[in-house]
Each structure stands twice: as C-alpha cells, then as structure tokens.
Amino acid sequence: MKLNEIKDNEGSSKDRIRVGRGIGSGKGKTGGRGVKGQKARSGVSIKGFEGGQMPIYRRLPKRGFNNIFASEYVTVSLGRIQTAIDAGKLDASATVDAAALKAAGVIRRLKDGVRVLSGGELTGKLTIEVAGASKAAVEKIEKAGGSVKLLAAAEPAAE
Length: 159
Prior knowledge:
Distance between the termini: 85 Å
Oligomer: single chain
Number of helices: 4
Strand content: 5-15%
Structural class: alpha/beta
Largest sheet: 3 strands, parallel
Shape: elongated
Radius of gyration: 33 Å
Strand order of the largest sheet: 1-3-5
Number of strands: 6
Order of helices and strands: HEHEHEEEHE
C-alpha cells in the first residue's frame, strides 16, 4: 500500500446536495424551503420555537428568588491577609479594616463590606475590623492573640 492509494471506504461520505439548480434536479425552485413565509427567507431561525409544542422554558417551573436588598460582601481568607503581611503590604500592628485591605491590594472593591473566612493560617497577632467573619476565622484570630471587631451592617438609605 502506498500513500497515494489510500481512499475512504465506499459509502463513508455523501456528496453535497446542490440545492436550487433547476426543477429537474428535484431540489430546484424553492430549494427545499417550502413556500414563502418567514422560514423560507434567508437568515431566519426562530430560537426556542418547538413547532407549536409548549417550549421547555415554559414547561419547567420557575425557581429561586433574587433578593435586591441582600448585602454583598467581599470575602477574604486569613491566608490571603497573612500573605499580604509577609509581603509588607499590610501593617500587622495597625488595625486591619476594609480601607487598609483595599490600599494593600488584597481586595479590589469594597461592595457592602468585607467578610473574613478561615482559609489558611495566621501567625501573628492582628486586630481586624470588618463587617463579618466566620466562627472558625474568629477562633483562629483569637487563638493567635488577636481580636475581631464586627461593624454594624450599613442600613440601606431610607428615602
């Protein structure tokens, strides 16, 4: 066998049907699109239309609820804070609050406040002032000799 003798198996590929090439071809005139109407035109596909059957997005029940008043906190792990302290971006002797974390580049934006989570380890004593902290994070901070002060959540402005 030589490379120039290699070919596909018989019947493994079909020839393309040339549509719209005369009535005698069997696929002429309207080219298999039926007659007139929206779907006979070019560039039309009716998304989500299932031939008159009730579409799946209407057959399935609605789920969930989006609370527009919910507070959205930025989460920071203890390991991330420790990394910033080790890199000299955060001062461990000063109070660590949302503004200090933003200035150090630990968080990008403040949103509704900062919530500290327990991921990672803390080596030094820290005073943290944030909107929220997990129980495990508070335990780790206090075990390291530090303290956590939780700020009152900012109330939405009444009009």
